[in-house]
Amino acid sequence: MTTAPERTADLYPTRGATEVATPRQDPVVWSEPGTPGPFSGDELGSFERDGFAAIDQLITPEEVATYRAELDRLVTDPGVRADERSVVEPRSGEIRSVFEVHRISDVFAGLVRDPRVVDRARQILGSDVYVHQSRINVKPGFGASGFYWHSDFETWHAEDGLSRMRTVSVSIALTENYDTNGGLMIMPGSHLTFLGCAGETPEDNYKKSLQMQDAGIPSDEALTGFADRHGIHLFTGKAGSATWFDCNCMHGSGDNITPYPRSNVFIVFNSVENTAVEPFAAPVRRPSFIGARDFTPVS
Ligand code: 6CS
Ligand code: FE
């Protein structure tokens, strides 16, 4: 059992009696300007400004086919379905997500180590990185539910013990993301304000929050203010496209009532300088398949 180091001061208070906004106290791009890597200077600039960078084609159509086949294999494997790392859709009972997919599947483990992926994470985070969380999201058609507005960092700080905003996610589309089938929406620039949410974290919150999050949800007033200030950007793109986004972006996605699945693989890289300590606002840690406690750098 790894013992987490002593917790540092809490720069981002959340899940107290009232909602409280705190200006970001961390860089967005941690590497020095001009640091070589797959992102161009302009791409890093827009990542800094907006909190995200979209790539039209990160992986080839042939590679998409390989990952889609692997996703289909996993979601039809009874062993995977029975695994606690699988989360099902509240309505249909179909598989919604499979967590720790980079440990379950050698195919997805290869994607994590791919230089087009991990070198971008290192470039943004300015250090070696490890996987804090990975998952495939199936988001089948005909009613798959979305994810309400939230900041991932708010959860990863409160429940997984990530101290600083030195974490980046990449969502790689494995099916076409239309403007109708429940695509990712991000409020550009929202990553520069941390919105501490009101309301304590229930015991075993993750058992519910991964289907329908309720702790760590911003108020309507706060969301209205964010949306008025930042707008809302909807990401569309072909299979193989990718969206890199900062851990503190306010984001969400709608239900998918079309016949067309919106499947992606979602990988969260954390800096090895920001390893998880004790949760800042939860009674206990979440399981390691959701918030990693093995900090071995990706190599
Ligand atoms: O709780 C989490 O860690 C997950 N929940 C959502 C809605 N997004 C981030 C993350 O995968
Ligand atoms: Fe999220």
Automatic annotation (TrEMBL):
Top EC class for this record = oxidoreductase
Q: Does the keyword Plastid apply?
A: no
> What EC number(s) is this enzyme filed under?
1.14.11.55
Reactions it catalyzes = L-ectoine + 2-oxoglutarate + O2 = 5-hydroxyectoine + succinate + CO2
Q: InterPro entries recorded for this chain?
A: EctD (IPR012774), Phytyl_CoA_dOase-like (IPR008775)
Q: What keywords would UniProt list here?
A: Dioxygenase, Iron, Metal-binding, Oxidoreductase
Region span, Disordered: 1-41
Q: List cofactor names only.
A: Fe(2+)
Please give the Gene Ontology molecular function terms for this protein: 2-oxoglutarate-dependent dioxygenase activity; iron ion binding
Q: Pfam families annotated for this entry?
A: PhyH
Q: Gene3D superfamilies of this UniProt entry?
A: q2cbj1_9rhob like domain (2.60.120.620)
Assembly and interactions?
A: Homodimer.
Q: Which family does it belong to?
A: Belongs to the PhyH family. EctD subfamily.
The identity of this protein, by name, is Ectoine hydroxylase
